[in-house]
Amino acid sequence: MAAAKLEDADALIDSVETFIFDCDGVIWKGDKLIDDGVPETLDLLRSKGKRLVFLTNNSTRSRKQYGSKFRTLGLTVDEEEIFSSSFAAAAYLQSIHFPKDKKVYVIGEEGIINELELAGFQCLGGPSDADKKIELTPGFYMEHDKDVGAVVVGFDRYFNYYKVQYGTLCIRENPGCLFIATSRDTVFQLNGVQEWAGGGSMVGAILGSTKQEPVVVGKPSTFMMDYIAKKFGITTSQICMVGDMLDTDILFGQNGGCKTLLVLSGVTSHEMLQSHNNSIHPDLYTNQISDLLAVKAATV
Ligand SMILES: [Mg+2]
């Protein structure tokens, strides 16, 4: 069924208890708010007693680091309301009781290492492998740690062949080693100027050399939906998922049984939404989240 344009913001707000917002392309683009109405929109929803949750597939930062980004942008958000795919990787390993004497090899940035260490896991790789190079000289043999029991792969601006080879050796040679992806995002708005290759490109490299499918912990996997619903004791039918990407945010909301609202302020254009090639249809769409303020204007 084709998505309907958001006309009655009041009815939407009244029909749900919790809003889960994606961040890139919804709340901000790079280091700027999507529009000046964002703080007022969040304030309005809070004043109506709505629970707000922020969920990003971007794993470069930890929850704590995202907390300071929200504050820098002038938004009052509690760190407990923020969930990132870096946190999801740690929460997933905890949920399966990943042994604390095993290690995790990280292809990704600081956020993943921070969250894993905060959860008490031993990590290798991450930013410390950023400058490593491999010289394929005759007879060169690369050692790897046999205690690595999981390889976590996320978006990584310092991706290199050393990391690919290290992760590949762990997955192929350590019995039972897990392959975990924080997300498989195609592209995202890193700096607000153009689209940049997302975490899916790093995950694809490891998939290519191991022929293994990863466990995805970020959107559209329902792992974080189940986690958030359980943590706050909410029913997913009482949630509205708000995002700018069809194959991550909207699919995540639909997989979880939520209402879905697509905003056109990020990577998805109106043409892409209406295209015959698109099979993912949100319940509603609108230009930007501050359109939810229409309710306020209408009642004045
Ligand atoms: Mg987004």
Written description of the protein model:
Its cofactor is Mg(2+). InterPro entries: HAD-like_sf, HAD-SF_hydro_IIA, HAD_sf, PGP_euk. The active site is at 22 (nucleophile), 24 (proton donor). There is one protein chain. The protein is an alpha/beta fold. Among the domains are: 87-216, Rossmann fold, CATH 3.40.50.1000; 240-250 and 257-267 and 279-287, no CATH class. The protein contains eleven helices and 16 strands. The protein has helices at residues 9-15, 38-47, 63-72, 85-95, 110-118, 161-173, 199-210, 223-232, 246-255, 270-274, 294-299; strands at residues 4-5, 18-21, 28-29, 32-33, 51-56, 82-84, 103-107, 122-125, 148-153, 178-181, 187-188, 196-197, 215-216, 239-243, 259-263, 284-286. Strand 7, helix 5 (110-118) and strand 8 (122-125) form a beta-alpha-beta unit. The relative contact order is 0.18. It binds magnesium ion.
